Amino acid sequence: MALSFRRWGARHLLLAWLVYWAALIVVGLGRALLAIRRATSLPDGHGTVSANFGDGNLMLTVIENGVTTYSGSVGVLAAALWIAGPPLVLWLAWLVTRPRRDAEAATTAARVS
Questions:
Q1: Closest of 97, 47, 36 to residue 72, by C-alpha
Q2: Cβ burial, residue 35 (10 Å; 0-12/13-18/19+)
Q3: Which residue has the higher pLDDT, 5 or 113?
Q4: Residue 76 backbone phi and psi in degrees, to 5
Q5: What pTM value is reported for the model?
Q6: What is the DSSP letter of 32?
């Protein structure tokens, strides 16, 4: 069975978005999440996590025992496009390939006649 947007319902579209966002979290934040988990499981005072926003960037730093184990930053626009861009494009592709209601009505009327 070929992948066809025409056969997709709203449930399929929502599931595709969720799969995309889960993959984005694993790929984009996987290392950061592991570093955060390690730092927060250390005894008190041995690990810190800080997140900052400034100059249009989101920044995350993880420090374990005085050593920076993770440091990353991303621009707000880039983050917004990664989060919303592909799902929006997928929705537009799905919307364009959907059969029109007037075409469905004409097909149904032709079958009835």
A1: 36
A2: buried
A3: 5
A4: -60, -40
A5: 0.73
A6: H
- Show Cβ contacts of residue 105 under 8 Å, excluding neighbours closer than 6 positions: none
Task: Express as a percent the part of the chain with pLDDT over 70.
Answer: 85
Token pair in block for residue 20: 């995309």
List the structure tokens of 6.
């025409």
| CA pair distance 33, 57, nearest whole angstrom | 19
Collect all residues with Cβ–Cβ distance below 8 Å to 69 and sequence separation of at least 6.
35, 38, 39, 62, 63
Output phi, psi for 85, to 5 deg.
-60, -65
Strand order in 67-75's β-sheet? 47-54, 57-64, 67-75
User: Which tens digit of pLDDT belongs to each residue from 19-70?
Assistant: 999 999 999 999 999 999 999 999 988 999 999 999 999 999 999 999 999 9
